[in-house]
């Protein structure tokens, strides 16, 4: 619009936009309004008054029809909004007043517009200056308080005037007290309406926010909060009103003083908010917690300089409890905004509440469902105290996770000491040396509470032991957190007069503790070694576990200390002469057994410890130690060795059940019901009882004479009551025994399933050690021994991967095997004496891959063999480089990779050759094309020896259906062989392995085989045969590209051209059978390399009348969807035109009749094609396509470069190159052939160009065609 001069274009744009304001589509009106606003904003010279006049004139409410009243109302409304959004309305007072009057008129049509005009009026008045608002206020605001309190919009306008022009408002309405007892009910109703209006928008209405600010301004916030919010909106039992109250609370937090904050956070609103948090558990139900967290984050971040208010808010939210359990989550991360003082005070409040729970200070509530429960045990103080203490201890641990430990070490140490003391110790007598003894308990700690504190302590210990700041602490000379806690525990043990352990140590356990401390002092002398650091870390964590599981930890400590002594003494033994090896196992093996025992425990901390320690000792790993790990993964060994599996203690399970909330009880009931249903289904399946029970049942019935022969009626009469009672007792006892046997079998089955689940979980944990070894020691030769065990785990898991544990085991094993082992950048560089073993392992893996039932499993085996080939080849390259460095003065150097090769092709090539032959002959082979492509791309030298196998199987006699041959090569396998050749011959690595004569010989052999496949081209009857044809043509095109690129000379092109000739005759008119379009494209692409251009389709075939040979079905299909005959234009018959063309075959240029139109010219031109054929001495019906020359089978086909050379030779000799079958009249046309041997412009192309010129007449204006129409009419 800026580039166009203002005139008709601007008028049209304004007219179109104003018209669009009243369209029927409701979603389009705001778009037109926005476009009009942007136009008025860009062109300020357009007067707003004229636009408003046009809108009022276009949509005059007095003249508009009743049916168009609603669009007219919205057009006026959106027109005013467009003027306001342009930003110019507040500057034009006259237009502003007229717009205000128009909005007041629109406000009367409440049925259509509702409160939209009043909202627009408030928005406009909020932007204008105070002086203009004073002039307009008397016209837009009525001096009636009832009108002000009638709707949120009127109240918002009043509050706007109260804020901007209070003096003018007081002169207009006098003194007004909105918070009087008479006005409060009406205020509540207005706020309720406003809450319902923003129900879907999830925001605080502006009128509520302005009322809140007015209450603070008039110092009436307590009255407003108590009467309007808690006693008014909350009593409505309306959730939008409740959400409005929650948003008022969040908005008011930064404005509250400390006294007001305590008033608000202990009222009914915060209790109602807690009830909402507890009951809002349905997935589709709206949850206000994320929005409230944002309000709290904003408050805490804004008052960092006021720690008292921060503490008051956190304490208030933490005091909202449901039967003793705080409703806020334990992982609430608002602590990151607290000041250091507020953090310290909050932790102190949590610890004091843990020691002396003050239930009266809590804002406690019960849900309606909890109130209906008659169980008295749910309302006792002990239960509330337990729930509160459980939340507090978990909250303390989560605070440590959030803190920055580098700056808050004192707070972390305070929390860690608190958790350790109350987990395993109790106070006998207070002392100054131990501050924890001065803390008195108002309620004694129960055993289940100490279990919760103990679990939280070890969770805290895991956080302190696995975070990156541990390394920084060691580098800065600080002690690790585990060492500090061990020293604290030793201090508590030594103060036996003041402190006592909950479970006292025995003499053996205390000796193990003392020996552990002594060993730690010895390790400090070797602190520079990574191995010593790992041992120290292991000792500390196992030593702390001595308080939780004394018996197991005592034995582990003894074994660890033995390993440490042997490890430290190993260096001194190496310096001495070789001594006789002791029969005791090496320390690494003992330590691996210890780590396996730790992994068997259901502790995530022990799992992390085992990973960390094993990462430090994996460089010292021995084959026997590795075998201990692999025995766990081996199913035969792991089933026999039940010592490695530790069943979870029943006490732990009972503790977990006791610590669950009441909400989880319903889930347990559902689980128990589902288990009962499963048991009933199992009982139904157990109807097929064993033969022994059948025989016993028959014996009881025969003894009671319940079964008989032909005289069974007499027997039934002879049975008396006593006999029937005895028979019933015998049957009851028999079925009771059978039920017990069924139950015993079911229990045994459940036990086996539980043991299997534990074993699978243990194997998943042991895979952590395998992952650490592969990650940290990929160049270790022991890694090569992991291949087959991991493959066996994958194979076993794929067969029985029904449960989730089996899936997890499979996924983890496959991830380690694929990504961290086979695809690792580093691998073993020194195989040593393992060369023969690795070759045998390659052969074994390839053979196992071919014997698998599933292709997915075979892929893992095949990739393992490729990894071993990579290891062998990598050692070869390194050995060659080392020999080149050592023999710098030598006269000869290795000629290639095989000069110092560890990879013996004579051993490996037959293995893969047999696998490839099996893949190309076996019907359901687990091997696949991507496997061999990966092999060829990674090892091109090996590919060179396998190419003859591919060439052998890519063509030849195929096995007929239901018939067996000596060498069964199916079309599908032949297609795969062609695909492999096509992908392989185009790689540079494979080409570099061949000399030029060898490469030409290979190309010739492949062309010969492709020629055999092309002789049956187009005769495919099955899908596999079609794939064979497609891949053969793709291979042929790739060979043509290679021949042209390398300028090769091949005599086999003659056979290729002769094989393509039969297919050319059937496709010379460009007709492709149904479903063979891709085949036709590939065929003509190959023919293009032979110098034959694909014929172009004629559009006249679609316009001609259907022939008599077509079936009625095809006629119906062609006519389907076309216009009826009555709707079609009349056309002249093609027969008359052809007769005229035959009658006048060669008229002179000056005697030609005048043109009568486009169609006659087209038909004349079409008739020239058969005429030209007759001029060449050939009938019109037998003339070949002009641009499709027929190849002679006796003449060898030439590539484009060969044709180019032949053309040059013929031109030097004074003759033009001609095809033997080409007529003499085409000499001039043959000269225009392209240099690449492809045919150039044909006569048909000239015909098409002339048609294109004639078609311009149809697109010309009607004035140019009027003369032709008049002549045609005459």
From TrEMBL:
Residues 1115-1132, 1157-1168 have a biased composition (Basic residues). The keyword Nucleus applies. It holds the Pfam family DNA_pol_phi. Keywords: Nucleus. GO terms for molecular function: RNA binding; sequence-specific DNA binding; transcription corepressor activity. InterPro entries: ARM-type_fold, DNA_pol_V/MYBBP1A. Residues 1173-1193 have a biased composition (Polar residues). Residues 637-689, 1097-1274 are annotated as: Disordered. Residues 1254-1266 have a biased composition (Low complexity). Residues 654-673 have a biased composition (Basic and acidic residues). It comes from the Eukaryota. This is Myb-binding protein 1A. It comes from Tupaia chinensis (Chinese tree shrew).
């Amino acid at each position: 619009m800026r580039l166009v001069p203002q005139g008709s274009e601007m008028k049209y744009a304004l007219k179109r936009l104003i018209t669009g304001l009243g369209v029927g589509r409701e979603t389009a009106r705001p778009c037109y309004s926005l476009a009009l606003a942007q136009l008025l904003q860009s062109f300020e010279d357009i007067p707003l008054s004229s636009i408003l006049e046009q809108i009022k004139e276009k949509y005059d409410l007095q003249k508009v029809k009743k049916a168009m009243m609603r669009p007219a109302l919205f057009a006026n409304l959106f027109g005013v909004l467009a003027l306001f959004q342009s930003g110019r309305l507040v500057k034009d007072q006259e237009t502003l007043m007229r717009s205000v009057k128009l909005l007041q008129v629109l406000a009367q049509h409440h049925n259509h517009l509702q409160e939209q005009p009043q909202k627009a009026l408030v928005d406009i008045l909020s932007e204008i200056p105070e002086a203009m608002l004073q002039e307009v206020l008397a016209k837009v605001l009525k001096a009636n308080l009832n009108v002000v309190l009638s709707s949120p919009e009127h109240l918002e306008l009043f509050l706007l005037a109260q804020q901007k022009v209070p003096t003018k408002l007081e002169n207009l309405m006098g003194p007004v007290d909105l918070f009087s007892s008479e006005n409060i009910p009406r205020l509540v109703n207005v706020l309720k309406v406003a809450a319902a209006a923003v129900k879907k928008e999830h925001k605080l209405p502006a009128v509520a926010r302005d009322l809140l600010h007015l209450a603070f301004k008039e110092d009436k916030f307590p009255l407003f909060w108590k009467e309007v919010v808690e006693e008014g909106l909350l009593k409505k039992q309306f959730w939008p009103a409740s959400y409005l109250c929650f948003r008022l609370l969040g908005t008011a937090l930064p404005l509250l003083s400390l006294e007001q904050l305590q008033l608000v956070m202990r009222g009914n609103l915060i209790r109602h908010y807690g009830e909402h948090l507890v009951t809002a558990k349905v997935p589709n139900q709206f949850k206000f917690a994320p929005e409230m967290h944002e309000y709290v984050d904003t408050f805490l971040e804004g008052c960092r300089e006021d720690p008292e208010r921060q503490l008051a808010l956190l304490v208030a939210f933490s005091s909202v409890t449901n039967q003793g359990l705080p409703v806020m989550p334990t992982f609430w991360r608002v602590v990151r905004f607290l000041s250091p003082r507020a953090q310290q005070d909050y932790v102190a409040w949590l610890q004091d509440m843990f020691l002396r729970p003050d239930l009266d200070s809590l804002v406690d509530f019960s849900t309606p469902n909890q109130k209906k429960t008659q169980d008295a045990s749910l309302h006792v103080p002990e239960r509330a105290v337990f729930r509160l203490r459980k939340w507090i201890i978990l909250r303390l641990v989560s605070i440590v996770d959030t803190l920055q430990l580098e700056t808050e070490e004192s707070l972390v140490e305070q929390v860690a000491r608190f958790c350790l003391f109350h987990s395993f110790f109790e106070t006998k007598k207070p002392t100054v040396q131990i501050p924890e003894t001065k803390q008195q308990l108002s309620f004694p700690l129960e055993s289940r509470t100490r279990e919760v504190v103990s679990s939280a302590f070890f969770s805290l210990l895991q956080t302190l032991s696995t975070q990156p700041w541990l390394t920084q602490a060691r580098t800065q000379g600080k002690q690790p957190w585990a060492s500090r806690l061990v020293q604290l525990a030793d201090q508590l043990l030594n103060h036996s007069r003041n402190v006592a352990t909950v479970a006292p140590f025995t003499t053996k356990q205390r000796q193990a503790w003392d020996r552990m401390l002594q060993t730690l002092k010895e390790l400090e002398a070797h602190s520079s070694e990574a191995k010593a650091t790992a041992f120290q870390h292991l000792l500390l964590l196992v030593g702390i576990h001595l308080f939780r599981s004394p018996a197991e930890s005592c034995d582990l400590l003894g074994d660890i200390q033995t390993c440490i002594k042997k490890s430290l003494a190993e260096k001194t033994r190496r310096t001495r002469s070789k001594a006789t090896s002791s029969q005791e196992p090496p320390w690494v093996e003992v330590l691996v057994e210890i780590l396996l025992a730790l992994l068997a425990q259901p502790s995530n901390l022990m799992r992390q410890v085992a990973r960390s320690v094993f990462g430090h000792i994996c460089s010292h790993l021995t084959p026997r130690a590795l075998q201990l790990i692999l025995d766990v993964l081996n199913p035969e060994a792991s089933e026999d060795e039940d010592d490695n599996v530790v069943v979870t203690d029943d006490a732990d399970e009972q503790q977990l059940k006791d610590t669950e909330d009441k909400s989880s009880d319903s889930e347990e009931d559902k689980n128990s019901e589902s288990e009962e249903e499963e048991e009933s289904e199992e009982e139904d399946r157990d109807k097929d009882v064993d033969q022994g029970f059948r025989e016993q049942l028959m014996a009881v019935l025969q003894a009671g004479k319940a079964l008989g022969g032909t005289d069974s009626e007499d027997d039934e009469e002879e049975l008396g009551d006593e006999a029937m009672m005895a028979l019933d007792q015998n049957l009851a006892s028999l079925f009771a025994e059978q039920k017990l046997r069924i139950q015993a079998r079911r229990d045994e089955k459940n036990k086996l399933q539980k043991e299997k689940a534990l074993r699978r979980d243990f194997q998943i944990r042991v895979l952590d050690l395998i992952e650490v070894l592969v990650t940290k020691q990929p160049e270790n030769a022991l890694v090569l021994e992991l291949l087959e065990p991991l493959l066996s785990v994958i194979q076993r898991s794929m067969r029985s991967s029904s449960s989730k544990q089996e899936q997890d085991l499979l996924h983890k094993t496959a991830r380690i095997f694929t990504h961290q082992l086979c695809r690792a950048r580093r691998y073993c560089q020194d195989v040593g004496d393992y060369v023969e073993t690795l070759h045998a392992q390659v052969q074994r893996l390839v053979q196992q891959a071919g014997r698998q039932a599933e292709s997915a499993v075979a892929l893992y085996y095949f990739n393992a063999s490729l990894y071993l080939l990579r290891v062998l080849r990598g050692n070869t390259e390194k050995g060659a480089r080392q020999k080149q460095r050592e023999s710098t003065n030598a006269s000869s150097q290795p000629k290639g990779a095989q000069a110092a090769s560890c990879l013996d092709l004579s051993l490996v090539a037959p293995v893969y050759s047999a696998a490839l032959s099996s893949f190309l002959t076996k019907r359901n082979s687990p091997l696949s094309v991507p496997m061999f492509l990966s092999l060829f791309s990674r090892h091109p030298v090996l590919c060179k020896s396998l190419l003859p196998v591919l060439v052998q199987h890519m063509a030849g006699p195929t096995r007929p259906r239901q018939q067996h041959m000596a060498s069964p090569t199916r079309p599908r396998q032949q297609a795969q062989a062609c695909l492999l050749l096509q992908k392989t011959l185009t790689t540079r690595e494979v080409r570099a392995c061949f000399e030029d004569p060898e490469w030409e010989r290979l190309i010739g052999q492949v062309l010969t085989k492709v020629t055999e496949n092309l002789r049956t081209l187009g005769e495919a009857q099955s899908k596999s045969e079609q794939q064979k044809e497609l891949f053969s043509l793709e291979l042929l095109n790739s060979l043509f590209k290679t021949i042209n690129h390398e300028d090769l000379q091949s005599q086999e092109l003659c056979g290729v051209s002769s094989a393509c000739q039969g297919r050319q005759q059937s496709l010379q008119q460009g007709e492709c059978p149904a479903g063979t379009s891709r085949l036709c494209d590939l065929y003509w692409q190959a023919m293009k390399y032979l110098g034959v251009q694909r014929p172009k389709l004629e559009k006249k075939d679609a316009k001609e009348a259907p022939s008599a040979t077509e079936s009625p079905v095809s006629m119906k299909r062609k006519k389907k969807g076309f216009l009826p005959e009555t709707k079609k234009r009349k056309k002249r018959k093609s027969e008359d035109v052809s007769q005229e063309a035959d009658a006048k075959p060669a008229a002179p240029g000056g005697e030609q009749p005048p043109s009568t139109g486009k169609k006659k010219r087209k038909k004349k031109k079409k008739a020239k094609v058969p005429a030209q054929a007759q001029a060449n001495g050939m009938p019109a019906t037998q003339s070949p396509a002009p641009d499709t020359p027929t190849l002679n089978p006796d003449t060898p086909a030439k590539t484009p470069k060969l044709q180019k050379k032949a053309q040059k030779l013929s031109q030097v000799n004074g003759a033009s190159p001609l095809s033997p079958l080409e007529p003499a009249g085409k000499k001039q046309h043959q000269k225009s052939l392209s240099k690449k041997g492809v045919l150039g412009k044909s006569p048909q192309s000239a015909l098409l160009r002339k048609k294109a010129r004639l078609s311009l007449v149809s697109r010309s204006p009607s004035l140019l065609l009027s003369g032709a129409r008049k002549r045609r009419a005459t």
